[in-house]
Amino acid sequence: MNAIVVYGATGHTGRFVVEELLRQNLPTAVSGRNAAALAEQWGDLDVRPAAVDDPHALDLALKNAAAVINAAGPFATTADAIIDAAARAGIPYVDVAAELEANVATFARESALPVIPAMAFYGGLGDLLTTAALGERTTADEVHVAYGLSSWHPTPGTRAAGQVSHDRRNGSRVRFSGGRLQYHQDQSVQEDWVFPDPLGRRRVIAEFTMADVITIPSHIAVPEVRTYMTLEAAGDLANSETPAPAAVDELGRSDQTFVVDVRVRTGGEERRATATGQDIYAISAPLAVGAVRRILAGETRTSGVASAGAMFDAVEFLKDLPLTLDLP
User: What is residue 162's predicted lDDT score, i.e. its pLDDT?
Assistant: First the structure.
C-alpha cells in the first residue's frame, strides 16, 4: 500500500492520527506548512512539507499517496485546497473538521472519489451513533445528541477554528430546525439532561450546536437535530485562561472523559445509543484512520461526499473503536 498522508501532522489531533496509523502498521507520510517542525517531530517518517496555498507543493505531497487525512484547521482555509489536491491525485480525502460552515461547503461539493468531512469526535461519532440507533430506518422526527464532557481543555487549533466560525456568522448562533440551518440571535438556554449512570443528571446548554447538525441530515431525513453540552465543559471552552490538554498516559491522552448520548425519536418511539470514552481529541484518530482503512479495503456503502453514517456500517465501525457502547 502507498502511504497515507496526514496533513497537519504536528498539530494536537494530527499527532494522534499519525500515531494511530503507525499503531495499525499502515504506511504513513506527514505533511503540513512547517517543514522544520515536521522534520523535528517526524524525521524518521516520510516528510512532505507543503503550504496549503501552494498547489504544486500539495501535488508533490500527495504524489503516489493512498489517501490523505486533513487534520489542519481552520478547515475554512485548508479543506478546499486539500480536497482539490486529493482529486488531482485521484485519492480519497478524510478530515476532522468541526467547523460548521467548512463542513457545509464540503458537503456541497461533487466528487467521484470518497470525501468524508467531520470524521471525528464532533460530527462523526454522533452520526455513527444516530445511524446505529435507527437501524435500517433512514428517517426520524428528532435527533438529540448530548455531550457529557468532564472538562474541555481546548487546543490552540480549536480556539482558532472557533474564532473563524464566529467571524463567518458575525457572532450569530445557529440551529438545525425545520430541515435547515437557521442563524439567530437568541440567548442560549440551559436545561437538565439525564445521562446514563454514573454521570446522571447534568445541566447542559441546549443548542450548543456542533457538526452533527451537518453530518446527520446529510443522509437521514430529519427536520430537527439538536446538540447539547454540559455546562462545565462549555465554561472551560469560553474561558480564555483554560489551558490546553495535558497528557496523563502513555498514549498522550488527557484525563478528560466523555459520554455521547444520542436519542432518536420517530413516531412516538425513542431509541438511544451511548458511547463513553477518554479524550475527545484522541478518539478522533481511530475514527479518521478507521475511515481511510475501510475506504481502501472497499468496505463502503456509497461513494462521493458522504458522512460516516452514510459511508460505513455504523455498528461495526463503533465496535472497533476504544469506547464503551450501549446500542439498541
Answer: 79
Predicted local distance difference test score (pLDDT) of residue 186: 85
- How high is the pLDDT of residue 300? 98
DSSP secondary structure letter of residue 237: H
What secondary structure does DSSP assign to 108-163, as a single string? TS--SS-EE---SIIIIIHHHHHHHHHTT--B-SEEEEEEEES-----HHHHHHHH
Question: What is the pLDDT at residue 173?
Answer: 87
Residue with cell 460552515: 101
The closest of 276, 269, 311, 273 to 291, measured between CA atoms, is 311
Distances (CA, A) of 209 to 31, 40, 64, 152: 31, 37, 38, 16
Task: Give me the sheet containing 4-7, strands edge to edge.
Answer: 46-47, 28-31, 4-7, 67-70, 93-95, 115-116
Question: Above 90 in pLDDT, residue 304?
Answer: yes
